[in-house]
Write a structure and sequence with these properties.
single chain, five-stranded mixed β-sheet, two-stranded antiparallel sheet, 7 strands
Length: 651
């Protein structure tokens, strides 16, 4: 298995270039330095490329590596020129020069955290060519083929895959489309991007947040990097459930967006009057791009960012409210206006998400237990992280500057409890609607605050141990820190070795295998997969296929490179589709069927992958199966129980 991933080293290198080069160049032009530059580079890249993807269609520019490279060079040149004109030569105030031993400690933390995240993801996915056996994978992979052929991956255009013209956040698709060098490499590109998000982007992002919140504490920063793999709720869960590729990218850059915002505000407040705008412009623009990256990946994450920033800002304003000249009325006004803005966006997103909410399955007390032992969404309890979280909460209570993190943990935990423990329609929609009341999405937010808190907790323990050892020099104190990271690494390695694949549990059901495994029982069976890959030899390029989309047949668009109705996992909502779903096999006897087929472009072929199902995201369509001996249908090919038929009834 490892060899399969190593064989993709070229594609991994390309993915790293796509995620880092634009952000590093732009960050350098904005005068970011050190960890701030490197850890924020992915979020700057995502934000910049997502905006360019929207701009390109208006300029008539085709989306691709060459055009993107030229556009990034132009943007960087403009930003660098403006920076020179403004003569802003100083680095960000919150990023002092780091000592070599601190850099070494951070490097160890990143290797531990990134390595464990990579090991967990690779063990679950299996091979880089594996396909997520989930409904959402059909849409996301098909969208990448559509982007490659249409030349656009704009958030204003991507819904064109389904014939729509509405907004759809396409930042993940913009990034991944640059990695997928051809249609055949799309599934591999999706997995490689997932690997980079889990093993590189997330550890860097959350370590930057810990670095900024701790005001440059090297120990806390390194421990946050190492502990970034401590919870399965993120990033691992997002590549199992859904599959939620865009949301995973969105949450991975949120910590960096929060950190950059804090740096920008601190820089503004710390600069002299008349110089504040120039001083804060660099981190401010970087923060704006990072927030754009999160929003254009998954809009609900702007609430995660907004809530955390407002918690920090509120706490910061209230800390000095009793000082002479503090202007308490102004401070309270800023706090009220800020939270009102978050509230308005929250309610708007809850409304736009619609009334469909996942039902509870744990009860309030069960949900509280999940929160306390970090076993969200029925994941295995993370006992070690829970102990460190408790220590971190103690540290946060003792330090007034950290209390907002504890409040953030309590707030995110409350959202999770409401999601899995209650079914009160109005309250549940108002509080959890932006995330569709989905406990998995809400659980994935929690590590953003738990990892920094656990890092503070472990740092407190390390320093207590160091203080108890007499005559301990600075180098030896670092050795104690390295020992703590070694313990984290050993515990993580043992955990992965003993349970390399942790199967997903949904309410009362537990998966029987990884959602990337392909066999007779998977969403897309191996027989169905083989038939789809044979489509180029069986069906002409301009032909149209129809099928029950909830059987995995929608993968025909990306795997078979042939057009299919619909190109996603969900069926169209129309009377014509209802006729097809119920009576397609009767086309030779019922003229209404041919009229219904005409509404969908007169497809010439139908894939029979079975009747469908009754589970979430599954649909029974008796008219789209059992074509043998039915007049008006000719079998073209079959693999096991999967078959392809030519529709002759409407000729």
């Amino acid at each position: 298995m490892i060899g399969d991933w190593v064989a993709q080293s070229g594609l991994i290198a390309l993915t790293l270039l796509v995620f880092f080069v634009p952000g590093l160049l732009l960050g350098a032009a904005l005068r970011l330095r050190g960890l701030t530059l490197w850890a924020s580079a992915p979020s700057l890249s995502v934000g910049t490329l997502a905006v360019l993807a929207i701009v390109f269609p208006f300029l008539g520019v085709h989306w691709g590596l060459a055009s993107v490279g030229i556009a990034v060079a132009v943007v960087v040149a403009v930003v660098f020129a403006v920076s020179l004109l403004l003569r802003r030569g100083r680095s960000v105030a919150d990023v002092p020069r780091r000592q070599p031993r601190h850099l070494a400690l951070l490097a160890v933390g990143l290797i531990v955290g990134g390595g464990l995240n990579a090991a967990r993801l690779m063990a679950y996915v299996g091979t880089p060519t594996a396909i997520s056996q989930t409904n959402d994978a059909v849409f996301h992979l098909n969208a990448l083929r559509w982007a490659a052929e249409s030349g656009t991956v704009s958030s204003l255009d991507l819904s064109g895959l389904l014939g729509g013209s509405t907004f759809y956040p396409a930042a993940w698709h913009a990034m991944t489309s640059l990695v997928a060098l051809d249609i055949g490499s799309i599934p591999v590109a999706a997995n490689i991007v997932a690997l980079v998000i889990a093993a590189v982007v997330w550890p860097l992002s959350v370590s930057l947040l810990a670095h900024v919140v701790s005001r440059g504490d090297a120990l806390v920063t390194a421990l946050a990097a190492g502990l970034s793999a401590g919870l399965m709720a993120f990033p691992q869960l997002m590549f199992e459930w859904g599959v939620l590729y865009p949301y995973a990218l969105s949450l991975a850059v949120v910590p960096a967006a929060v950190a950059l915002t804090i740096v920008a505000v601190r820089t503004w407040r710390g600069a002299r009057r008349g110089e504040r705008l120039l001083a804060a412009a660099g981190p401010g623009v970087a923060a704006l791009l990072a927030v754009t990256a999160a929003t254009l990946s998954q809009p609900s994450s702007v609430l995660t960012w907004g809530a955390l920033v407002m918690l920090w800002f509120s706490g910061s304003l209230l800390l000095g409210i009793r000082r002479p000249g503090a202007r308490p009325v102004l401070r309270w006004s800023v706090i009220v206006v800020g939270w009102a803005a978050v509230g308005v966006v929250w309610l708007v997103l809850a409304y736009l998400a619609g009334p469909v909410l996942w039902r509870s399955y744990r009860g309030v007390f069960g949900a509280i237990a999940d929160v306390l032992v970090n076993s969200h969404s029925l994941l295995p309890a993370a006992w070690g992280m829970s102990v460190l979280l408790l220590a971190g909460l103690i540290a946060a209570v003792r330090d007034r500057r950290l209390r907002w993190l504890a409040v953030g943990w309590a707030g995110f935990s409350l959202l999770y409890i409401v999601s899995v423990g209650t079914d009160l329609p109005f309250i549940k929609r108002a509080l959890t609607g932006p995330w569709y009341g989905d406990s998995f999405r809400l659980a994935a937010m929690v590590p953003i605050v738990v990892v920094p808190l656990a890092a503070f907790g472990l740092a407190m323990i390390v320093r207590m141990v160091s203080a108890a050892i007499p005559r301990l020099t600075g180098a030896r104190r670092d050795a104690v820190a390295l020992v703590s990271l070694a313990v984290v690494a050993v515990v993580g390695i043992v955990n992965v070795a003993l349970s390399p694949v942790v199967l997903l549990r949904v309410a009362d059901e537990t998966d029987e295998q990884s959602r990337y495994a392909m066999n007779a029982d998977s969403y897309l069976s191996d027989d169905e997969y083989r038939l789809l890959t044979e489509l180029p030899d069986l069906v002409s390029r301009d032909s149209l296929i129809i099928a029950n989309p909830s059987t995995g047949a929608g993968f025909a668009y990306v795997l078979g490179e042939r057009d299919i109705v619909p190109r996603t996992w969900a069926p169209p909502q129309s009377a014509a589709w209802d006729v097809i779903a119920a009576h397609l096999r009767d086309a030779a006897e019922d003229p209404a069927v041919c009229e219904a087929l005409a509404a969908y472009g007169d497809p010439e072929y139908v894939l029979d992958f079975g009747i469908g199902g009754t589970g979430p995201g599954e649909y029974l369509m008796p008219g789209m199966t059992d074509f043998e001996d039915r007049p008006g249908f000719e079998e073209v090919a079959s693999e096991g129980d999967a078959s392809l038929w030519r529709i002759t009834a409407c000729g």
